[in-house]
Amino acid sequence: MTKESLKKLSIPDSPGVYFFLGARKKILYIGKATSLQSRVSSYFSSDISEKRSELIEKMVEEAKSIEFTETDSVLEALILETNLIRTHKPYYNSRSKDDKSYNHLVITDEEFPRVLVVRGKDLVEKMNDTKLLYEFGPFTSGQLFKEALKIVRRLFKFYDTAVPVGAEKSKLAKGKIDFNRQIGLYPNKQTKEEYLQTIRHIKLFFQGKKKLLLKELNADMMRAAKAEKFELANQIKKRIFALNHIQDVALIKNESKVYRDEKRIRIEAYDIAHFDSKDMVGVMTVFDNGEISKSDYRKFKVRGFDKANDPGALAEILERRLAHDEWSLPQLIVADGSTAQKNALEKVLKQANLVIPVVGVVKDEKHKPIRLIGQKDMIEKFKLEILMVNAESHRFAISFHRKKSRQSLLK
Known about the structure:
This protein is an alpha+beta fold. The protein has helices at 3-6, 36-41, 48-51, 54-62, 74-88, 91-96, 120-125, 142-155, 171-182, 192-206, 210-226, 230-244, 246-250, 310-322, 339-351, 376-410; strands at 16-21, 27-33, 65-70, 103-108, 115-119, 132-139, 266-275, 278-288, 291-292, 298-301, 332-336, 358-363, 369-373.
């Protein structure tokens, strides 16, 4: 395949998995990418044999076409790539890699299954006597695999003890389990049925079945809410949110600073909703000290505009919000929009003699965040919080607008 033939393909600048295909659509090689466009293009540089290998150069020459599958995140691309390589065993993947040195994820077949990370060689040499429910891998990207496990562990607590749960002999080993429960690494005491449901969710995640996992979690949330187990329903809701925003979580470099910061911070997010300029409304949502604070949410009916003017409407609701001295001031403000929206809010703050940084969340045509604009140190420190409170403001604004539109129709 040549560089000229590549130009005919419309390869997106998004995460995903790509396939080099030979004669009769035979899969020669499978890879993952943060940007499919950039990654695939890199195979057609003049020094590919030096950058990759002569084997990969030969693969490109043999290829007749390229196909790809987009994913929601790089981590999901990693999982999809691993499962596809395991299924299809492409010639150039197997020739260019030593599976024995890579990590595998295994889930043991025990009363309380353990989720363990093992090297390929240890899977053969040291785990022959251990019965396994599931095995995933090999994961060729060690760093991404670690990120995936961190995200899974935040959502689904699991055991990774050296011996089966309940087989600990020393007080130290038993104490370690209790300690890990207290700090949130291991699950709190659950029934066997509850824990096996957690294991099923982990299995679905690593099988690349996120849609099915989300469907099951939504059903679990509705059952919990119907049974008036509202705390459990809220916990499941947070898992659903995180799974839908894996790409945002994965972009954060320093995982130790993701969700908690020692400094107390209040973040307020603003958004506008309307349909053809009708029933224009605005909302404020709040993230306070590491948690969504729904009691501080506020709704505004936009008064000063009868035509679409999101920057102007945002300025209006911020002015009205600042008139409430009894409300705590934020340390960061988030605007749903680009430079115009951000500038409108900054102008209001300047007129009020307030120095509060503003971050804009720029969206694509599908209303997904593509970048953050504003003070870099605040974005780096509070990226996840910014994205979460912004998503809440959009949801809250749409919900309020729909309610107001229904009321208008009834009148």
